[in-house]
Every structure is written in C-alpha cells, then in structure tokens.
Amino acid sequence: MPEGVSVKHCLLGMESQIWQMQRVIWGIGYFPSMKNLILCLSMLMGTAMTLPAQWTQDDIDQNGPQIEFEQKEIDYGTIEQGADGTRRFKFTNTGDALLIISNARGSCGCLVPSWPKDPILPGESGEIKVRYDTQRIGRFSKSVILTSNCEGSMITLRVKGRVKTAAGPQNTPKDE
User: Fold this and answer.
1) Spatial separation of the C-alpha atoms in residues 43 and 13, rounded to whole Å
2) Which of 45, 55, 89, 94 has a 20 to 30 A CA-CA distance from 68?
3) How far apart, in whole angstroms, are the C-alpha atoms of residue 80 and residue 29?
4) What is the DSSP-derived secondary structure letter of residue 99?
5) CA 1 centroid distance within chain
6) Which residues contact 158 (CB under 8 A, 6 or more apart)?
7) Is 88 helix (H, G, I), strand (E, B) or coil?
8) Segment 69-81, tens digit of pLDDT
9) How far apart are the C-alpha atoms of 142 and 154, rounded to whole Å?
10) Distance between CA 6 and CA 12 in Å, rounded?
11) What percent of the chain has pLDDT over 70?
12) The predicted structure's pLDDT at residue 73
C-alpha cells in the first residue's frame, strides 16, 4: 500500500468511483445506453484490478504484538534470609506492532513486579522485574500474571526457591 494511504482511504476512493458509475448509468435516464454501460463496467474492472496492487499481503496478515520470554520460570535455588530477592524476566516483542503491558500482578504481597510502562517497539526488548520478600523463611512458589495487548493477553511467569535462616553471629556464653 502506498505510504500515507490507509485501507479506509482506498475504500472511500472505491465508494466514490461506484457513485460516479451510478451517475453515469442513471444520469441519462432509466434506460442507459450501451456506451454508458460499457464505460461503467470498464471503470468497475479498473477499480477491481487496482486493489490487489494497493494491498499487500503484509497489510492483511499483520500478527500484532507477540511477546517471547527467554524463560518463564526462575528458580532462586536456596538463598539466605534477607538476601537480594530481585530477579528479571527478559522478553522481546517478536510481533509487528507495539507491545503494551498494561498490568503485572503478583500472586501475593510478598512478590512485587514492575514492568515497562512505555510501549515496546517490534524487535525491541524489555524486562519484567520481580522482587520476592526474602524475610520469609521456607519454600516458596509464586506467580506473576501479565496483562498485555497480545493475543491470549494473560501470561503467567513463575518464581520458586527456598529461603533459609541467615547465619548470624555465634551465641557465646559471657564470662563472669
């Protein structure tokens, strides 16, 4: 399709040509002449033949935004209490339209996600940052649900691991 011309403009142009054909056919009276009929049919054929040249397969087969993650699950392994609980899910927009992540929600208050608020261009990358509260001792398995403008807009990311008690200073008996 020519740059700066949308499908809407093409359809409006086609509608205008059809209106002109109707005026030619019916403009002389209710009984059009053979000459006017042939003229209208040739205009219709000309319009029909130019449409495939204006619309490319790319215009028809747009996939929209597509999000592809390097990984959808992160295993923290065993970490100490109070350790850095921040991890990153890296992704790329492999589609052909802007990717917009409108929300990211942790499965509980101990997992806090942050996401890019600006649209991600096709071919560009970004990351979802998650922070787990490592003050909670024990095993954990949590999820983050992303909402985006991709087809099947709900995407689930998972984190798991185990937080062990931090090794503190040794309790030694006091000398008396």
Assistant:
1) 13
2) 55
3) 91
4) B
5) 24
6) 72, 73, 74, 141, 142, 143, 144
7) strand
8) 999 999 999 999 9
9) 16
10) 10
11) 61
12) 97
Output the DSSP codes for 128-172. EEEEE-TTS-EEEEEEEEEEESSSS-EEEEEEEEEEE--------
Gap between the Cα atoms of 88 and 126, Å rounded: 10
Residue-wise DSSP of 62-74: -----EEES-SEE
Tens digits of residue pLDDT in 51-99 = 555 545 454 446 889 999 999 999 999 999 999 999 999 999 999 999 9
Q: Read off the pLDDT of residues 117-170 as tens digits, 9 standing for 90 and up.
A: 999 999 999 999 999 999 999 999 999 999 999 987 799 999 999 999 987 654
Residue 112's Cα: distance from chain center in Å? 22
β-pairing verdict for 125-132 and 86-93: antiparallel
Is 13 a residue whose pLDDT tops 80? no
CA atoms lying within 13 Å on the CB side of residue 41: 7
Residue 124 near residue 93, CB atoms below 8 Å? yes
In the chain, what is the straight-line distance between the N-terminal and C-terminal CA atoms, in Å? 91
- Chain center to CA of 33: 55
Query: Rounded to whole angstroms, how far apart are CA atoms 129 and 114?
Result: 5
Query: What average pLDDT does this structure show over 105-118?
Result: 95
